[in-house]
Amino acid sequence: MSQTLSNPPLVSRGVAPVTRLAPVALPGPRLGLGLPALLLLAFGVVPQLGGEYWLGAILVPFLILSLAGLGLNLLTGYAGQTSLGSGGFMAVGAFATFGFVVHGGLPLPLAIFLAGLVTAGAGLVFGLPSDRIKGFYLMVSSLAAQFFFEWLFQKFPWFYNYGSSGTITLPRLELFGFDIGSAQGRYYVTLSTVVLLTWIAVSLTRSQIGRNWMAVRDMDTAAAVIGIPVYRSKVVAFAVSSFYLGIAGALWAFLYLGSASVQSFGISRSFQVLFIIIIGGMGSIAGNFIGAAFISLLPLAIDHIAQGFFAGHVDAGLLQNIQKAIFGLLIIGFLIKEPDGLARLLRTLGERLSNWPLRF
Amino acid sequence: MNLFLETLIGGLLAGTMYSLVAIGFVLIYKASGVFNFAQGSILLFAALTFVTLLEKGLPFVAALAVTIAILILGAIVIERTVLRPLANRSPMTLFMATLGLSYVVEGAAQGIMGAQVHALDLGIEDVPIFLGDVLISQFDLVAATTAVALALILALLFNNTRIGISLRAVADDTRAALSVGINLNRIWQIVWAVAGIVGLVAGMLWGARQGIQFSLSLVVLKALPVLIIGGFTSIGGAIAGGLIVGAAENLAETYVGPYIGGGITPWFPYFLAIAFLYIRPAGLFGERALERV
After folding, report:
1. What is the mean pLDDT of chain A?
2. What number of CA atoms fall less than 13 Å from residue B196's CA on the CB side?
């Protein structure tokens, strides 16, 4: 104290602001060079190294599933609303894109964007009950969406342009006059879309909207008490999430599968997307990519191991069931050991490694 | 008028089958607050085990006894490996764990016993009978009687046995139940075993009608609107919910379906449930939760 008094005025002015609240530092991106390096790798190196099979049959679906996970994660991981209707909303995106191209004659990028908006509208409608219905009860709304859309797109031939088999397919994938039908073309288009939408999602979660979502997730009654528009936040979450799922559905149908039907977007697709965010990490953007990578690579790994051990003596049906059981066990294991998913696991690992020799 | 009555009665009887599935959910939800998504796959597992044992040549009663023993064992394993490590976690986490559990059970059931369709003959003749002018399926009648009998048996057990009373104590106030020395883990095991047996009964009836196959595990999705309408915590509610859903979807399919293309039963119950929720957000018989900040 005496020291402060004896200090010259200039310094004491520097000490005084202690009473002021320190500005809260928001955790910014800590990636540094990591992100540019990753993008360079994804845009520059991978398409050169990866063959037709890797690009078209593994990386494209991985990216699209990440996008779908991102969509569900915004709703479930950030805004706290459970949904089992992801598959249904993906179907809306796919069939709307098809409609805009075939019935409206629009170019593909515009059609996909408009399909995203249509899906957002659909999500908004099925999110409307969230003002009175909460928790498990709200699941019924998303299941209503799932089964309603499955029925809708199967029952009315207008949606699949009166084809005989109920499948939708685009004759030629074109972007600004360029043919993007090759594996590389499809990879680039998917990657660009996913990068753009991920950037928007990151910005969203750091904005007022994202903060409102998290407040609603943590306790919506408390959020309402401090003046957050709870209902509007929930409905916006449904709309934004569905926009992402719609785009993912369109990409899944036309850039990955080529031709799709309602069966491509059944309830098991909804579960798959949900598993991506459980395994990857709820409320984490990177988690979607990690979860999607895990869910696309695990079947390959199991296949590979089975081939190695039993030299192809295991029949496909049994293998599929083993895979299913392993997925189930992993989910239970994650929920018990690391409820924040692989994303948190990797981060903890990274932090441990960064001060590795001096752990204690 | 006859068509209306037939549709209504047919729907009500079919609804008791939904009730049977829903009762299994209610038991577990009451005792442990877990929304057990795996009930459908447990139902499939139970029915598949039973029919496989029958096909192996075991007599009916022995097959039933072995299946029940396996279900009790399964309940103990589930309690020890899934529920106990996840005690005191959020209901949503537990729900997702049961989602994972459903994958394990389905994978195991089909991996071990195969994925082909099994026919099950319970010896009930499916000959329609006339009640006055109204045509009624005999099979539905048996199923409905079973559901009612099962509900009565469960009610008697809950009200008159020591286990049943401790179960109700746990459902009423878990902490108070613990403090008077009720073994919560044991209660969970019992409840999961009983829910498994209820699932076995439901699985046998559903299986006798449409064959025992993977799609059986999807009845869980149909039970959700039933639960929502009846409330998660009431067995009476599960029965009422089943009847309402069964009757409403049958009537809607007959009278509204033709105007919008038909085949509306997969989604109609969910819209019905949403409409119900708007009027009573905790279901017909559910308890309204108080929220404190």
Report:
1. 84
2. 29
Q: What is the pLDDT of residue A21?
A: 53
Predicted model pTM: 0.86
- DSSP assignment of B121-143 equals --S----EEEETTEEEEHHHHHH
Higher pLDDT, A45 or B282: A45
The alpha carbon torsion through B236, B242, B243, B245 (nearest 10 deg) reads: 140
- Total domains in chain B come to 1
Q: If you ran DSSP here, which 8-state letter would residue B212 be given? A: B
Q: Which chain B positions have a beta carbon within 8 Å of A144's beta carbon?
A: 267, 270-271, 273-274
In a domain, B278, yes or no: no
* pLDDT per position as a tens digit, B190-248: 999 999 999 999 888 888 877 888 877 777 788 888 888 887 878 888 888 999 999 99
- Domain with B34 in it: 2-217
- Does residue A27 surpass a pLDDT of 60? no
Contact B28, B191 (CB under 8 A): yes
Q: Are B47 and B61 in contact (CB under 8 A)?
A: no
Model pLDDT, residue A40:
83
Q: Is residue B11 part of a domain?
A: yes
What is the model's pLDDT at position A13? 43
Residue B267: φ, ψ to 5°: -110, -20
Answer yes or no: do A139 and B224 touch at CB < 8 A: yes
The answer to whether residue B235 is domain-embedded is: no
Closest CA to B35 of B109, B99, B100: B99
Q: By three-state DSSP, how is residue A179 classified?
A: strand
Pairwise CB contact (< 8 Å): A144 & B99:
no
Select the residue of B218, B263, B274 nearest A144 (Cβ to Cβ): B274
